Amino acid sequence: MFNIYKFEIKKILKTKLFIGSFVIFLLALTGIYFLSFEVSRLNDNAQQVAKSHEGDFTDEKLNQIIDDYMVKFQDERKAGTYKIENNMDVYTWFIFDNFDKNSRDRSSYVKIDEAVKSGKTLRVTDIDLKKISDLNFPKFNKPLYTSSYYGWYDLYNATSMVIMAIVIFTIILLAGIFAGDTEKNINQILLTTKYGRSKLISAKILAGFTITSGIFILANLLTYAVFLYYSSSLGWNTSIQLNFMLEVFTFPVELNQFQVYILLLLLQFTGLLAISGITLLLSSLSKASFPVLAISVGLYLLPLIFEKFNKPFLTKIGNLSPVKNQSVLELLNIQDRVFISNNFQTNLLFLMLIFISVALFSNIFVYQKEKHSYIK
Questions:
Q1: 3-class secondary structure for 233-259?
Q2: By CB distance 3.0 to 4.6 Å, which of 52, 171, 219, 251 could disulfide with 296?
Q3: Are the C-beta atoms of residues 370 and 178 closer than 8 Å to each other?
């Protein structure tokens, strides 16, 4: 069995199709990393500010963060040393924007500019700020924890784009596992061999799972490594409600940014298993690889087309698909999209079980179908 399994793996990895699609896959990842990390690169100043303000997020902490931001900004403006590309404090800017009562008309910034011109220094007590309770954060046993969040926002965005590249690459490789043999008309020979209707089928299915898992793990390890290079892991323990770029202030579950990242990967992986299972099923039913590729990609992207029709039924069906559950905001809004309840944990578990069931039943169908195939 193991030797047959290794043979099936090598058969996939040694083809020109794999080499060509792998090169394109790497180019796609490079583009994603450039857009997600290099273009929006976080300067060291913002990281230092975030690190200096790590801790429980209280009204006192909020006032301290904004007061430090205002004083530093005004001092640099007065000294003529402020440059937006070097001094932009992303960490505090988004916090200030959400808690400033006058953020819409920017009147607080007008006051700061006037103070700079007159040689004065405005402090946090000179502007109108909202309280933490005004943003309706959920209450837990411990206060919410604040630290860096900007780099994690980039990681979430990159991960949601990387999964699309992984899905397409996986479909390309799996489309020919069964259909390729039929296309070359060697499936008739394989069915007559000693293990043609048992171990060979299992080996092909297992090879498909291995390829799927391997691509997913390697691509996400690479993504996380690139993230660490650009941003470091600072902020892993920040409460997800305090990622002010996501604006999920009322999210009801106590999770930090790293825990959300792990849940996102688990949801994406189970969705990928469902897609790979369907691709194998189509491959076992088809006589050629290209139709499998086209139909699998079409089915994967179909829920995005459902949105254009603006029909509640189609929207609910689309919400149960992998492509509609691969971004961090889609994950964090699962409880609002109403599957079987308005509970985050219940809906997440329900959705993952659906994906796993689709993968499992698809593989069982493939095994039984191939096992009972007839010889022409």
A1: CCCCCCEHHHCCCCCCCCCCCCCEHHH
A2: 171
A3: yes
CA distance 285 to 370: 9
pTM flag (> 0.90): yes
Vertex 172: Cα angle to 166 and 175 (nearest 5): 125
d(CA 376, CA 374): 6
Task: Tell me the average pLDDT across 47-60.
Answer: 92
Could you list the beta-strand ranges (E) of 23-122: 55-56
CA atoms within 13 A on the CB side of 55: 10
Assess contact for 88 and 43: CB atoms under 8 A: yes
Per residue in 154-197, pLDDT (tens digit) is 999 999 999 999 999 999 999 988 887 666 665 554 455 555 45
| Per-residue tokens: 314 | 């189609």
Does residue 191 contact residue 375 with C-beta atoms inside 8 Å? Answer: yes
Residue 41: the pLDDT is 64
Each residue of 105-141: pLDDT tens digit? 777 888 888 888 888 888 988 888 999 999 999 999 9
Q: Which amino acid belongs to residue 237?
A: N
Task: Quote the radius of gyration of the chain (alpha carbons, Å).
Answer: 26
What 3-state DSSP class applies to 129? strand
